[in-house]
Amino acid sequence: MSAALQNIINQPYKHGFVSDIESDVAAKGLDESTIRMISAKRNEPEWLLDFRLQSYAAWLKMTEPTWQNAHHPKIDFQAISYYSAPKQKPKLKSMDEVDPELLRTFEKLGVPLHERMAMAGVAVDVIFDSVSVATTYKEKLAEVGVIFCSFSEAVKDHPELVKKYLGTVIPTSDNYYAALNSAVFTDGSFCFIPKGVKCPMDLSTYFRINTEESGQFERTLIVAEEGASVSYLEGCTAPAFSSNQLHAAVVELVALDNADIKYSTVQNWYAGDENGVGGVYNFVTKRGLAQGVNSRISWTQVETGSAITWKYPSVVLLGDNAVGEFYSVALTNHYQQADTGTKMIHIGKNTRSTIVSKGISAGKSNNSYRGLVKIAPSASGARNYSQCDSMLIGQESGAHTFPYINVRNNTAKVEHEASTSKIGEDQMFYFAQRGIDAEAAVSMIINGFCKDVFQQLPLEFAVEATNLLSFKLEGSVG
Amino acid sequence: MIYPNSKTILEVRNLCASVSGTPILKNMNFTVKSGEVHAIMGPNGSGKSTFSKVLAGHSDYEITGGTVLFEGKDLLELAPEERARAGLFLAFQYPIEIPGVGNSQFLRLTYNTVQSHRGNEELDPLEFDDFVRDKMKLLEMREDFLDRSVNAGFSGGEKKRNEILQMALLEPRLAILDETDSGLDIDALRIVSKGVNHLANKDNAIVLVTHYQRLLDYIVPDFVHVMEAGRIIKSGGKELAVELETRGYDWVSDEYKAASRVAA
Question: Which domains does chain B have, with CATH numbers?
């Protein structure tokens, strides 16, 4: 039976192909001229170049974080190309003009850019290496005042909005990778939901790294004005390379009074092979500012890919009665390392936060939950509920929990629950004795374990996440 | 019940099995025909539970000799899930908890998996709901039972009832009940036994693995066997269990040793 279980977790990564698309790739290396080059290629205004240069100056003075429970050889930042774009300019008006090879790439990935998206009713912005190649449904969204476009277009068409919010949630010097991103980011998505508008469809960005030695540094900014609401989905894949690619993204969310932002991620970057060779370093800074009263920011993430994941989608609960949520499933297999969790910073009165984290470790992987719940002196009546569950598969995987709780207001209520379980031979035998094969058993156990998180995902994403988890676990139970 | 011309369901010949190199079953012989109820008794460590797990195919045990035929087929060739689909059912002594997996979802998956392998129709969630609720009545189970996670937080009695419910759903040819009476109060024992008796018929067979005569007052066996050191050392009718209750196991053991000496 162990052998059957082993087989269930070890299926090949199906997004590992490389597309043969002519790209404009910058020479490797990083200095001030690289940043000026990126800015110039994108025809950026002076203020944005200044933002980059300040970030670069800050980054030079910083050192890489080493506190995380994940280990990798020192990254040579001069060995990375900071710009790679499919050769195809200018930005296209219609999907029909997109390079057919690019369309095929996304078809293969299950992200059709054609009319079929119309049925799915999801608007998609597609980021290929460093640039946005397509955004669907832009006009339809514009009718209700929703701006959904690539970051570059936003800089060109809505500079006042970008300038107003960029870097307000995550300062350029917030941390090493956020500073690097702020200096060299190339593209990303921008969403603006004006006052009182409920975004009529889910917005989605699909990220794809295609070039071997390029880093991906995208930047996402979502602003929901008073009473606005939006559900945003993000998906990521990369080809299988034997080298490691760096992905250092920054995502900022701003919710004004009574606004509601729901951000869902299914991350499936290439994780490296079964011996731990290759894979993406996913070092991402995501933070939401629940600025207004009764505002709500909810993060849901399903992290299955990357050689190393280092991310803590957080919420600063500034407005009174603001709500922050973090629902996470992190699955690691083989030699993957994940150090992920959240920070809930309570500042406003009667602010509430919920953290539900499910870590699944298989193979020789290590999976850590790291979270901070901070209740400021001003946050009277604040409440937090945290639940961190770990599941171990096999004998050689590790699960770790690092919860930090810092309470400065004695009217606050903070609850933390944690559990560790194991898919053992006995559970598998029980299923087998009822006629259920190992694959179906693992899938049922894992989905049961992750149920609280999956039910937060939009339906299509929930189905994808369920399949992805079963797929990633093929062959690892034992 | 013993029926004339009944078919042989299980035939165990000289079965030897060990765990991490230590022999547990030593030339075990055991035959079960359709319609029969067998009780396997014996002191702790005699190999009773091992025997049931070996039949079900638990990977901890290595088969070192002998044969097992299940309805004429080589049982030892089959993977555990294939044995279950073929109609071998084990009611566990300690049913495992599976948090987060809904009981109704689990029951439906096992039912449909087994039925489809037997070439029968699968049931959709609504049909299954009616079907399973009907079976639950037999075991006097509460409605909310279906909404809970599999065995998670169940009392001892609830876990055992859940096992018998699965037996009712899967309609096995051979049901092995491994210490189903342990941890049951007298009411639960009565309900569980009633369920088992209801499910017994001339085409299937039941093997009760137990320490106590008490269970056998409710489920009356046709044969009682005593196991010691990995083999059956005495078999008899239901009156043997009563005798064991009053006299213990030592006399059986002594008798067996004396007989073995004579034979040698």
Answer: 8-97+173-263 (3.40.50.300)
